[in-house]
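Q: Got a minute? One more chain.
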Amino acid sequence: MSSSSAPVVVLGVTGSIAAHRAIDLTSLLARQGIDVRVVLTADAQRFVTPVAFQTLSRHPVVTDLFQALDGWRPAHIALAEAAQLLLVAPASAHTLGRLALGLADDALSCVALALRPETRVLLAPAMNTRMWLHPATQAHVATLRARGTEFIGPEEGVLACGHEGPGRLWPVDRIAARALELLGSA
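A: Always. Here it is, folded:
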């Protein structure tokens, strides 16, 4: 799947108002020599389209579970095998739940389940404060942390919904920096 020896980051983008910031994250990682492969969930596509991600990553964007990338292999298997890091930014409450429960009903959740055991996972949550603090979300976070998933954020501040508190996507330059650190320690 990767035509170079550059590290491969699979960037999952989920349904959050912060999805547009993942475009800048893609650019930052690509400029650092990272081979970025983007997976957009259906909900993410209500906020952003594949065009910018495809242009900045220089790769097709996966938007569908049944999409093929390199001939016969399903995209989710090809991406899972190539990834050195699965980075989900923004990670919605819905996606945190899917990942914690092991649900596999879209391309991103299937990539997550098919990862090689040594592949690191970094999640950058972004959601309403009450959603982040809800006991169900916190239980999902605890489950994922227990499996070795790392979290970055969320940040506190004024949210798009007008509430103030934790829930903002961590600054993309700091997400990119942490991703690079994890790739360096792999």
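A: The chain is about 40% helix and 20% strand.
Q: Perfect, thanks.
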